[in-house]
Amino acid sequence: MKYLQEHEKLLSDLSETELNTLCFEVDYCVEKQQYKVCEYDIVIEDSDTFVRRTVLKEKIQKIYEDSHQNYGAPKITAELRKSGERVAEKTVGNYMHEMNIKAHYIKPWTKTTVSKNFSNRLRNILKRDFDPASPDAAWCTDITYIWTYDDGFVYLTSVMDLFSRKIISWVLTKDMTAESVLEAIKIAQKRRNIRKPVIIHSDRGIQFTGELYKEITEKMKRSYSKKACPWDNACIESFHSLIKREWLNQYKIQNYEDAYKLIFEYIETFYNTVRIHSHCNYQSPNQYEKSYVKSN
User: Fold this and answer.
1) Handedness of CA 22, 25, 30, 35 (dihedral sign)
2) How confident is the model at residue 41 (pLDDT cuts 50, 70, 90)?
3) Per-position b or e across 4-43, b if 16+ CB within 10 A of its CB
4) Model confidence at 61: pLDDT above 50
5) Is the pLDDT of residue 28 over 60?
6) Interhelix angle for 73-82 vs 89-99, to 10°?
């Protein structure tokens, strides 16, 4: 026990969890300056090493926060070395693991092009009010990727009426140009023949912030999700996940034509007309809108 007494100051630096493990046999190896506790080795650091580790962790935390939590061990190591620190990338990675911090992971192939216009003019008018009292009070729109073996990615743009969750228009395109994607908005306007301003909500993709979109939606109230916040457009995001999970993922989609047929079949002959929704009191979107018309 004399060794424990001699190192009482160093033991005080251990965490409560580490101290709690000191309930079995303690073997002290003078040559390695190491305690063996049960099956674990607890390294007893001298005070200078402890201070350096603490200071280094504080620097790592600051660089991590300054990067908006985007930097991982390689970039943080580079920043530390710029300031004169001599440290290995593996050490930085180990410290980050102990601190429970890591760089954000971005899924490949899922993020659409985001407009550089982050102006406060792109306001969220909808504010996640996904239950309007009548049809054509609020629409939402978004784009999703669909993989085909021959044609690569094709792009589904959908417009949903939030009252009934009905997909009131959709287009499938081989590119993501504004002209191709925004055709869905034009189709929705013709089909619904709206006579009053309607809120139309989207993310900040470049197709939805450009001049052509502003021209097409001139008489509508444009609403935008916050940057990198898919929950602001949750209903259309959910639909695009649904069509893939319930339908598209069951097939090997060969090309654009195959994808078009499958999407048409799902939306026009099932989702809008047959599939019941809890939001619609377990009616299909078409039935729910007809019920509204009858009661009003």
Assistant:
1) negative
2) very low
3) eeeeeebeeebeeeeeebeeeeeebeeeeeebebeeeebe
4) yes
5) no
6) 120
Q: Is the pLDDT of residue 225 over 50?
A: yes
What are the beta bridge partners of residue 114? Answer: 205
C-beta separation of 172 from 158 below 8 A? no
- Distance in angstroms (rounded) separating the CA atoms of residues 190 and 99: 56
Asked whether the beta carbons of 252 and 147 are under 8 A apart, the reply is: no
Contact 138, 162 (CB under 8 A): yes
User: Coil, helix or strand for 70?
Assistant: coil
| Residue given tokens 């009292």 in the structure block | 133
Looking at per-residue pLDDT, the higher value among 165 and 250 belongs to 165
Query: Which pTM value belongs to this model?
Result: 0.60
Alpha-carbon distance 57 to 99, whole Å? 8
Give the range among 47-51, 65-69, 223-227 with minimum mean pLDDT: 65-69
> Which residues make beta-bridge pairs with 146?
154
List the one residue out of 52, 100, 103 whose CA is nearest residue 73. Answer: 103
